[in-house]
Amino acid sequence: MGIYKLEKYKLCFIFFSRCWSKTMTQFIYKINKKNNLKTKNLIGSKNILKEIGSDYKIFIFVRSPYTRILSSVIAHEQHHNKTFIEFLNKYSKKKSWIDDLTMSKPNIIKLKNNRDVEIINYNNIYERFKKIIDSYNLPITLLYKKELNFIEKEINKHAYNIKLKKFKRSKIPKYNYFYNEEIKKRSMKYLNKIL
Questions:
Q1: Domain boundaries, the chain
Q2: What share of the chain has pLDDT > 90, as a percent?
Q3: What's the angle, vertex CA 47, arms to CA 14 and CA 51, rounded to 5?
């Protein structure tokens, strides 16, 4: 999760884990380095509204919490001995996890409520960011790499009860196979603060 600015261009980008965060961090470091500017994450800034003035344009990258959770769990390969439902049961009660999932950090809320903000859905990140590069003449080249490859064919409808180590990054069932109605309802109480 990060709040990063491109001071020369009066741009600010806010992104979360599994929402192009590594790619965006690399882009911002490269651009700032070319302009001899330092890069720092402003998520914990004491005065975010002073750091990001009213003359900044802010882009917030968001993603469906359902696909974010699934992407995080499978891509990081840290919970392979659990099923998806076991992972949710263990981590959904941790406040830091809920804050990240619901994107409710105080500085993000301040910027969203007090600055010119555009919210970009993960499904449109590549196309929209390409337009941002062109519009602001940013000195970077955008290469696209698909993050996870979901398979279209119908599989076991209870994928949430299968150990995660059974899934490969290139062959993951569509996210809806990991959620039944009970899991969705239980999850919704944690998602009511989403942007």
A1: 2-191
A2: 21
A3: 55
